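pinging the channel bc i need a second pair of eyes. not urgent but kinda urgent?? the chain im working w is below, pasted from the shared doc
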Amino acid sequence: MLPIKLLKWIAFILSLLPFLILILGINNFINLGPNIVEAVLHRTGNTSLNLLMIVLLLPLMAKHTLFRNFIVLSRMLGLFSFFYAALHLCVYLFIDRNMSILSIQDDFISRPYILAGMIAFLSITPLALTSFRRAQIRLRKLWKKIHQLVYLGTASGIIHYIWQMKIDLSLPMLYLVGFLIILELKKGFRVT
């Protein structure tokens, strides 16, 4: 079993890696494809969703002796998920839409996946804001209720992904199936 400090460092480096790859891609050291903005949007969105799915898996993994130390990664991975979601939103607002209120308003009306994405982001924002020990102590029982928003955030993120896909739905559907399996496993652990 890895020591907790080493485990945290490995998780930190792996969580930062997608951001470093984006920086290299933006500076033309790595090819991100013909549309860099679209590539950044997809990669930040996928990374945020990947990390949310891992955060949901960690308590299940912690029930097994081999992975019990992994639960200490929840806060860090959740904050990285929020970081990538915030980056995703900022790229959309400031670069893709140039902060054009009319363009953003038109997107909300004509593209329902934008609304699903906003629900996902707004759902995980309180998690990031209350992820610290002081918030846990102050909020007591309310803290656990607030952190149940991770399920709404993940579901909305998956819906956002499914609705924005035009052709190949295989990866978003894989997220959906994974999410449903996680929910079923969590339900099973509560019953037993």
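so The mean pLDDT is 91. and DSSP finds nine helices and no strands in the chain. — does that match what u expected or am i reading it wrong
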